[in-house]
Structures are given as C-alpha cells and as structure tokens.
C-alpha cells in the first residue's frame, strides 16, 4: 500500500492514524507544497483534483480522506472502528460528514489567519465571522461529548474520532477568545491515550 501526501497535512494524518489503528503496513510518499508537485501528470492521473492524500492499494486508487478511512476499515477488519450495523454506522458517518462540512468550513479562515498567519487570510470581518462560526460548531461538539461522556459516535472510539480529534487540535492551537469546553478537553485527554493520536497530533 502507498499513501501519497506530506505528513504535515491534516488529511494525510487522518489516514496515517487509521492505518496505525488497523495495523496496516504502508509506504508514504511526500507530495504537496514543498515536495513533489500535485500538478505532475502522473499524480493527476491518480487524482484529477490535485489534492492529497491518495491511497494506492495494489491496483485500487482512492482519494478523499474520509472515503479512504471508510475503505481501510472495511477492507482491513476494522468493524470496531466502523460498525456494520446500519444505525451505528450512520452515527459514525454523520459525525465524519459534519467534520468535513460544518466544522471544516467554520474553522478554515480563522485558523489560516490566526494560527498560520497566512497573508491571504487577514480580513478582520472574515476572521470574526469564522471565529464565531467555529465557536458555534465546537459548542455542538461540546454538547455531544457531554452527552456521551466518551466519544463522538457513542461509547466506543470510531473513525469519527480520528477526523474530529485532529480538527480539535486546531481549535486548541488557535489563539482567540475561545469559550471553555470542558467535555472537549476531557475528550482530548482520552484521545491522548492512543498512540496514533500522539503520533499525528500536529495542528
């Protein structure tokens, strides 16, 4: 198995953490900013969107990080991460989809402005709007974790915690007037007991 993408990418780190949980062996290749260009014809043949990560498993090629996680769990005996029962699986999917849409959309501008100091993300009004949207989204997560007392999909660790756990690190790494979220902090402490979280915890 080959994983194409630089290790600093949050979406690549999702895949690496999932592989560690499943004990799947792989070779990672550096692609992306600072490494091999994503517009090389060979890479575009694998992913026409010119984005990382890309998974190459024998003759099977897959892109989109959350889809890759689902594939890995299905292919490599990961039912404990991605349950087969329809309602349990739907709950994991719900939170994975929420991370990819609502949560990511909320934090993107503020994180790039305040944590990464990216010049293209310095509009004050957009920073404020992003911080507010991010705080609202994290409030949704706080309420869910307070309810479960454990993980986002319920009592058991799942794929949803891989994608949301790494996103939560960006919340903790960004300096703005953030509300206190004790359930989220307790959640991070639980995740920190997993070697994969520690290994791929870069914000």
UniProtKB/TrEMBL annotation:
Recorded GO MF terms: glutathione transferase activity
Q: Which Gene3D superfamilies match?
A: 1.20.1050.10, Glutaredoxin
InterPro entries from the xrefs?
Answer: Glutathione-S-Trfase_C-like, Glutathione-S-Trfase_C_sf, Glutathione_S-Trfase, Glutathione_S-Trfase_N, Thioredoxin-like_sf
Q: Which UniProt keywords apply?
A: Transferase
Q: What class of enzyme is it?
A: transferase
Task: Using the record's annotation, list all stretches that form the GST C-terminal domain.
Answer: 85-203
Q: What is this protein called?
A: Glutathione S-transferase
Gene encoding it?
A: gstB_2
